[in-house]
Amino acid sequence: MTGQLKYRKKLTRPQFRKFMADQPPFMVVMEACGSAHDRAREIVKLGHDVKLIAPQYVRPFVKRQKNDTTDAEAILIVAQRPEMRFVAPKMQEQQARAVLFRARERLVHQRTELVNALRAVLYEFGHVIPKGIVNIKRIDAILEEPNGDLLTLVRDECQDLVKQIAEQTIRIDTKTKTAKEMAARADTAQRLQTMPGVGPLTALAVEAFAPAMQNFKRGRDFAAWLGLVPRQHSSGGKERLGRVSKAGQADIRRLLIIGAMSRLNWMGRKSIPAGSWLARMLERKPRMLVAIALANKMARGIWAAKLTKNENYRGPAQAVATLTTCAAAT
User: Which of 65, 140, 163, 302 is the most exposed place for a label (fewest CB within 10 A)?
Assistant: First the structure.
């Protein structure tokens, strides 16, 4: 790739497809956007090699004013840099899983909005309801109380909100069931679920949003891609580490942290082996910080044991038992 200008044409979508079909195989570089993955699959079918670049890597190379021409020049400059990291194009099946995951998340957010609206109405009339969908039964009891202090109009509106919440819950349960069935059919998702704290939704999110693990040289790179590493502001050989960057894939990161926190809450401090890494962390650090560190370890485990080595999860005790058995056999 020499970067010499050969064509300067403005093409519509149909014209672009025809133009690419008439060209000999070459490398095509585009910004990663909503339609980039579908366009990349079409171009690959025509025999070309496609690379996608994250927009935040292109923006610093745009000259002064932003337009299509300067964007194209910036993309060309960035593509020629040897250290540049590219976005792996997604397959249709992977994008379909992402559509299901996003649809369920959207319904959960909408239901949360309805629950908060219902709690706000009741709060105006002196009924304080804690957060959480589990408290919907308390709301039903207040609305069904025959001698309640709520006006008929307020009661009717609250009951309408309760019906909407019930409808959203049914739709969420349906999509959750579909997600679990998809996770049960996929071999990789089944291996992911052997790790404590990783459920069907987490496995589906990894399959939907994570690229092939071969794109990461080590587990730390995958954890950094998720945003589970400290923000760095180092200089002059002196490391300055801050809070978690949160600059990576938010969906997988959030589910891993939730899974790690559930492991800590489920295990409890007394059930954690004394002297272990987790026990030492809990003695010195807050539980939420330990959960983030555990989520980082889980991310590295996903990279190593699940998607690279194609193995089921083995805990420390299982690994020691395996080594002992091998030593005895020899």
Answer: 65
Same domain, 199 and 315: yes
Q: Are strands 241-244 and 230-232 parallel, antiparallel or unpaired?
A: antiparallel
pTM of the model: 0.81
The beta strands (E) that lie in the chain are given as 27-31, 49-53, 230-232, 241-244
Q: The domain containing residue 163 runs over which residues? A: 92-185
Task: Give the position of tokens 């559509």.
Answer: 99
For 114-164, the DSSP string reads HHHHHHHHHHHTT----SSGGGHHHHHHHHH-TT-SS-HHHHHHHHHHHHH
Q: Are 119 and 138 in contact (CB under 8 A)?
A: no
* pLDDT values of the chain reduced to their tens digit, one per residue, 330 residues: 566 777 788 888 889 889 999 989 988 999 988 889 999 999 999 999 999 998 888 998 998 888 888 888 899 889 888 888 888 888 898 899 999 999 999 999 999 999 999 999 999 998 999 998 999 999 999 998 888 888 999 999 999 999 999 999 999 999 999 999 988 888 888 888 888 888 899 989 998 898 888 888 888 889 988 988 888 788 888 888 777 776 788 899 999 999 999 888 866 666 677 788 888 888 888 888 889 999 999 999 888 866 666 667 766 554 433 333 333 443
Asked if 272 and 303 sit in the same domain, the reply is: yes
Q: Is residue 5 part of a domain?
A: no
With a CB cutoff of 8 Å and minimum separation 6, the contacts of 8 are: 69
DSSP summary character for residue 90: P
SS3 230: strand
**Do 299 and 221 form a contact (C-beta atoms < 8 A)?**
no
What's the structural domain count of the chain? 3
**Pairing label, strands 27-31, 49-53:** parallel
Boundary of a domain, candidates 21, 56, 79: 79
